[in-house]
Amino acid sequence: MEKNITLETLAIDGGDRTVQTHFPWPIYDETDVQAVADVVRSGRWGNPDCGDLVETFEQEFAAYCGTKYAVSCVNGSVSLRLALMACGVRPGDEVIVPPYTFIATASTVLEVNCVPVFVDIDPDTYNLDPKAVEAAITERTKVIIPVHFAGLACDMDAIMDIARRHKLRVIEDAAHAHGAEYKGRKLGSIGDVGSFSFQSSKNLTSGEGGMVVTNDENLYRTMASLRNVGRMEGHQWYDHFNPGCNYRITQMQAVLLSRQLNRLDDQTVIRNENGLYLNKLLSNIDGILPLTRSPEATRHCYHLYIFSYDSSAFGGLPRQEFVARLAAEGVPCSTGYPHPLYKQPLFQNKNFMCYAIPESVDYAAVNCPVAERACRDEAVWIFQHAMLGSREDMQSFAEAIRKIQRVVTQA
Ligand SMILES: *Cc1c(COP(=O)(O)O)cnc(C)c1O
Does the keyword Transferase apply (predicted)? Predict the structure, then answer.
């Protein structure tokens, strides 16, 4: 049998990979190993009264974000929960969230007996559309949770203005946004509370972990108490004032985070510059449209580099198959979320257990067309560790896409 000889063969069909670089994550060296080993040998692993490394990291992170206070906790879901509780939400209150985000942004709203209200994203940024936010406000709305998706700043001036006029709290979900900026201010420092995750995929990580930052002393005191089993400063160990839980992190996590924080700025600068460069390279490829960066997004940290894919420029190749080919060429990538959050069985089946969601709430009736399109056939994500590569790596990402386009359109 004679094989159809083409000029090039995709890696998925046994050809050479376009991208040869391996992109490691997490990044650490022997001094990090030593620092954690030192904590282990010290025997001072956690509470009570050996939490000085945790406090040190909290102060470092608050200073980095430009906020007065920071409270660490076990993950970036609990941090949202602490923020919601501290904001004083009551059962049945409405919280505005985007549908294109990780489940925790909405499921933590259920955990505090409140109603997630899904508001569609902007097609150019995949962030909450402020006009849609304002249109969704009712007399029961208490909080807006803008997610700085992928590390790209939301339109915070518009969101803060809406919040002020309607007397709402703003919790920034900055789980993707360590070190990213809006008009030169760190994301997470603009709303009432900023919430971060240190889970292993995130741009700053200790495997698991989370943090809330704030400038509001009352919110700070409440979140610190909730994190520490409802204890309050100046009282006895077995005095409990608030309905909190033990959400504390260990000294081993804290020392690792302190050391990783020293790398964060350099890494963010690299991702930011690579993102700008990749925008230029990919804008020239038919059918590939990078998301838009407004001038106010002064620093993007590219937890994800996202572009939208138009199969018609790729001979009708479905996005799933395009991404399989791109991954085989050596670009760490994915199609992202398969559905907007309201389509998850949790919401469709209203499997809310004892939570105070009114009967009238029906997630089967929710439709956010932009999020639907992003999930169904548009979005392609390149992961943050690949954005730490060189300029040549960015060129090879673009070349991998061009190669796929050539092969599938000549067939
Ligand atoms: C990762 C993530 C969270 C939750 O963080 P965990 O530490 O995994 O609990 C919350 N929101 C967004 C947008 C995330 O990506």
Answer: yes
